[in-house]
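Translate structure to sequence.
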């Protein structure tokens, strides 16, 4: 499913209004499999792979990825879109929206950074300890079983690769530097916040703060859910998002068979 063109790696599926999905720092494209499949029936779903480990270090930042997103959308000739971002992906969407509000129809944030997030820490003092990394990966979710062996293995590989660690820390510092609190009151487009009640990375009070600062935001909770609702409770996540898109006039199921 992954296309490689003009220096971009991305998924493209379906027809209709553009829905652009942005993954998190440790989150691959597969984290959104069920969301992509569900919404590609009514939208053109585009999901670029953010160049977390391949960009020049000086451009490995929220700002750098926002520019990358801008270039990708220009390449795909996307004029306006709905943006859906998890964790770092939500932060990139927010930064992009603050610079290009004319491109944003609506914004969906789930476990988004941009105000506050608790990462794995400022360093990886036990990075050679597989059980420690496994425990940290499990803490991202309410149900530790969601942290599969494949997921833990991938994180373990990342934190034991010196250059990947440097990039991860650069992004963490960039996220703190690009706090969006002052920009949020100027975002005059509809925003959907879908949050896990048990999110340990961007806790529930972060969602409440987003709701307070954004002029036109709706907040929805998913119980027994951590930092990645689209992975832990994909059906509930998709239903909440579908209902919100319908309420806001973005979703036209009658177009499916035309």
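Result:
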């Amino acid at each position: 499913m992954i296309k490689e063109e003009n220096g971009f790696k991305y998924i493209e599926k379906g027809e209709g209004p553009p829905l652009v999905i942005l993954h998190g720092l440790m989150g691959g494209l597969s984290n959104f499999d069920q969301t992509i499949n569900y919404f590609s029936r009514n939208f053109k779903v585009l999901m670029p792979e953010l160049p977390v480990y391949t960009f020049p270090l000086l451009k490995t930042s929220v700002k750098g990825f926002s520019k990358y997103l801008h270039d990708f959308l220009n390449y795909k000739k996307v004029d306006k879109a709905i943006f859906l971002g998890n964790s770092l992906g939500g932060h990139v969407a927010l930064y992009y929206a603050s610079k290009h509000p004319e491109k944003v129809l609506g914004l969906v944030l789930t476990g988004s950074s941009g105000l506050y997030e608790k990462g794995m820490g400022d360093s990886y003092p036990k990075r050679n300890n597989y059980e420690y990394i496994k425990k940290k990966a499990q803490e991202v979710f309410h149900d530790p079983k969601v942290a599969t062996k494949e997921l833990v293995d991938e994180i373990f590989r990342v934190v034991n690769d010196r250059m990947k660690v440097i990039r991860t820390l650069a992004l963490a510092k960039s996220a703190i530097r690009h706090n969006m609190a002052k920009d949020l009151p100027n975002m005059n487009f509809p925003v959907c916040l879908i949050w896990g009640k048990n999110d340990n990375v961007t806790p529930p009070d972060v969602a409440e703060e987003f709701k307070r600062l954004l002029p036109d935001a709706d907040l929805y909770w998913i119980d027994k859910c951590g930092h990645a609702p689209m992975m832990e409770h994909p059906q509930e996540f998709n239903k909440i998002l579908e209902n919100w898109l319908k309420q806001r006039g973005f979703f036209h199921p009658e177009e499916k068979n035309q």
